[in-house]
Specification:
- The structure holds two protein chains of two kinds.
- By secondary structure, chain A is mostly helical.
- Chain A is built from eleven helices and two strands; from the N terminus they run ααααββααααααα.
- Chain A has helices at residues 3-34, 41-59, 63-89, 96-119, 145-167, 169-179, 181-184, 191-213, 223-238, 243-263, 269-283; strands spanning 135-138, 141-144.
- A two-stranded antiparallel ribbon of chain A has the order 1-2.
- The longest helix of chain A has 32 residues, at 3-34.
- Chain B is mainly α.
- Chain B has one domain: ABC transporter involved in vitamin B12 uptake, BtuC (Orthogonal Bundle).
- Chain B has 14 helices and two strands.
- Chain B has helices at residues 3-29, 33-58, 67-84, 88-110, 115-134, 164-185, 188-198, 200-205, 210-236, 241-245, 247-260, 267-285, 293-308, 320-323, and strands spanning 145-146, 238-239.
- The longest helix of chain B has 27 residues, at 3-29.
- The radius of gyration of chain B is 19 Å and the shape is globular.
- The chains are: A mainly alpha, B mainly alpha.
- Chains A and B meet through α3, α4, α9 and α11 of A and α5, α11 and α13 of B.
Amino acid sequence: MTAEAIIQSLASGLLMGLLYGLIAVGLALIFGLMDVVNFAHGEFLMIAMYATFFLFAFFAIDPLLAAPLVAAALFVFGAVVYLLIVRFAVRAKANAGMVQIFSTFGLAIVMRGLAQFFFTPDYRSVTHSWLGGKTISVAGIYLPEPQLVGALVSIAAFVALYFFINRTDFGRALEATREDAGAVALVGIDKNRVFALGWGLGAALVGLAGAIMASFFYIYPDVGASFALIAYVTVALGGFGSVFGAFAGGIIVGLVEATTALILPPSLKSVGIYAVYLLVVFIRPRGLFGSM
Amino acid sequence: MDTTFAQRRRRDLIVAFCLAVVAALVPLFVKDVYVQNIMVLTLMYAALSQSWNILSGYCGQISLGHALYFGLGAYATALLFTKFGVLPWFGMLAGGVISAVIAMVLGYPFFRLRGHYFVIATIVIAEIGLLLIQNWDWAGAALGITIPMRGDSWLKFQFARSKLPYFYFALALACVAWFVTWWLEDSKWGYWWRAVKDNPDAAESLGVVVFNSKMGAAAVSAFLVAVGGGFYAQFVSYIDPESVMGFQFSLLMALPAVVGGIGTLWGPMLGAVILIPLTELTRSFIGGSGRGVDLIVYGSLIVAISLARPQGLVGLFASRKEAAR
């Protein structure tokens, strides 16, 4: 194995890791806000990918242009899911933890069923896009353009999120609500509205990720499952609820995956990620950046 | 506990015995193979869910990785039989013991984790198991193992035509899982588990050995689920990694308990009796073309029940006095 091959695969791993971070950050945001893990997160990604595909197939809209539209659509979807399901799930008096897990799992199953029903289980792909299939060569390392642009979008999204949380009124309301949902009511912040917008924002972020992924991944009803598990691991590695922990977690997961693929057969590449997750939580039961 | 509790327990036992007798008589009147097949699956899931309920319901350690133990049981039984000619009866027992040991080995680091960190760790470890078996050539890798038919025999626990032997085994397994739960409910362990579930720190301070009680629950739960896995391998006579260790099994094991009532004696049974026939029927009548209608019905039911009756359906059958307990 040459040094170039190692650098090449680490570079690809880094790009993929930045995307993993973008996929996972919505999950981390929602968890930080209200201690709820959305077990339908992978299915949010799946519908974002389908939305991108259909915009491409019916209106010939390139995935890059579709990304903001898909993110906006997912924002609405996320807020609706909160208002129709999660709002009631967090009120449960008995078995609170179970209710959260299984109400969102039930939603995931329904979404997969609906996707099979309306879109059939066939594999779809965006056959040609501006970036699809192109690579760029930097100092002898070949980087696929869709992944490269995806990584840049991810970095941009994290920077925007940083300013959003720290500089805007809504961002401050979000921070205040995550610290003490009871007390914010006293200063006139509607907790439900903040939660709904938080779910919208979380879903919009995974929508953005889905639009980018659609240009280089097959799209099918179960596509969310494998990415969802990676997203949970990413979020848990970073420490649940830590938005920037998700960024670091994503990069670690991407690099570990690439390294594992160098050592073990490609079909075992996820084992490395899972093993690192277990190792990290055994040493730090609250993840790398978790503080709770 | 007071006499009403003792009375309730005695009544539960009598009801269970009557139900088991009635269930045992059903196949004498229902000869349809398709219906018998559904009954076998219902009883199997009742047993699995009851076992899952011991760790996740009573002890409160939500596992979404029990497919690992189910798969280990199935693989231990199938591999021991096809490679070494060990009878499935011993195979199931071996699978159970291996799973219980693995559950305790894993429990050592896992039970330090709390909440979502624990849940995700259970999903992840089952996924590692799945990937390893998929890449293990000796065990058939992704293709799986076909258990050769050597003619109907109780000794080899395989029957080409009749479903009845499988039905009675599944019934026995469900009864054992129920009885173990019933027995543990009023044991020292049962009280410990409920204390650990409600408040581990308070339980610890009152002298409950939290760690050991979690380990006990994990071992019992894993053993029973693995025996169920061994049974399943014999029942379908062909296993592959995804079909016995896939994540969907972890979910399918948990859902009857969720629907019926988590941490209750009757919840998993009730949930299985409702969910499994419903799934099988929707699958064959509407979803036959693989169009996902079964998933839509199933998922909607889970959402509706977990929102509308978080304590499960079992409370609907209890008297008001007991529901207030």
